[in-house]
Design a protein that fits this description.
4-stranded antiparallel β-sheet; mainly beta; single chain; globular
């Protein structure tokens, strides 16, 4: 698949069968989504700049923006804007959706906002230098702060709980279907695996050649090595990650997305070199 720009994030939506990539815009300009799937590629423009993306797996993606977030229906391409009350000037940099349908948003000023289902701000946690990535496990959230190279758990009310250092320079984070939180420490060259409630580091494993791209699945944890243009699948079932498969990739494999139903891994180039589709990625069985 060819790219016309340089995406910063990717996810797979199971309902529509679309691979969704985010092409960010600078403040004051529009961002767009590029959707890849049958019958072909289409683009969805957003009425503003978006910085982060998450999905519900059921045909809708959500994107953090200044003062609020967008919800995009992938089938129709319709984008709906939701404002966060009292936060019109806040630059939201991260977004995650909880199991109860509420959102957790991160601000450039280092505040994590936990919203109720009707988008009211239930809690503000001003504990961070910068909120770079948020993931959820059930109704709990975990915040990655790259500046402090730390991960911090927020409970279902949005209250900060345990905080742990995440290597020497953590950059990316995701969760997997088993409820684990996966973090790539690019500077330290390792994959970190955390349990939630309580937050605890359970596994750490060396990964060479500038690891960055990350995706979780029910079978393997996927990590890209951007200096080698390789992606590796690790089995986390035992006490230490075990390499099961590795594939050469497109240049600068910054973003990964995985389709559980078809066992397909998507590798998205951060340099615009294209999208690689790896079928039967985790192997048979």
């Amino acid at each position: 698949m060819e790219l016309s720009a340089r995406p910063t994030a990717a996810l797979f939506d199971g309902k529509t069968g679309y691979l969704v990539t985010l092409i960010p815009g600078i403040p004051g300009t529009e961002s767009k989504l590029s959707l890849f799937g049958a019958p072909g590629q289409k683009n969805v423009g957003l009425p503003g700049a978006a910085t982060s993306m998450t999905g519900n797996g059921d045909g809708v993606v959500y994107l953090a923006s200044r003062g609020g977030y967008f919800a995009v229906d992938l089938a129709s391409g319709a984008a709906t804007r939701t404002e966060v009350p009292g936060e019109a000037e806040t630059e939201f940099t991260a977004i995650a959706r909880r199991a109860d349908g509420g959102f957790v948003l991160g601000g450039a000023d280092g505040t994590a906002f936990t919203l109720t289902a009707d988008t009211q701000v239930a809690e503000k946690a001003k504990n961070f230098a910068h909120v770079d990535v948020i993931v959820t496990v059930g109704d709990d959230a975990v915040v990655l702060d790259r500046g402090q190279t730390s991960v911090t758990a927020l409970d279902s009310r949005g209250k900060p709980q345990q905080a742990l250092r995440a290597g020497e320079g953590a950059t990316t984070m995701t969760s997997d279907p088993a409820g684990r939180v996966l973090v790539v420490d690019t500077r330290g060259g390792q994959l970190l695996v955390f349990g939630v409630d309580p937050l605890i580091e359970r596994q750490a494993y060396p990964v060479s050649h500038a690891p960055y791209g990350l995706a979780g699945s029910s079978k393997l944890a996927w990590v890209s090595q951007t200096a080698a243009n390789v992606v590796v699948g690790y089995d986390l079932a035992t006490g230490i990650p075990v390499e099961k498969v590795r594939y050469p990739t497109v240049q600068q494999p910054d973003s990964l997305a995985y389709d559980e139903a078809s066992n397909t891994l998507y590798v998205v180039s951060g340099s615009g070199a294209g999208i690689q589709v790896i079928r039967n990625a985790a192997g048979a069985g």
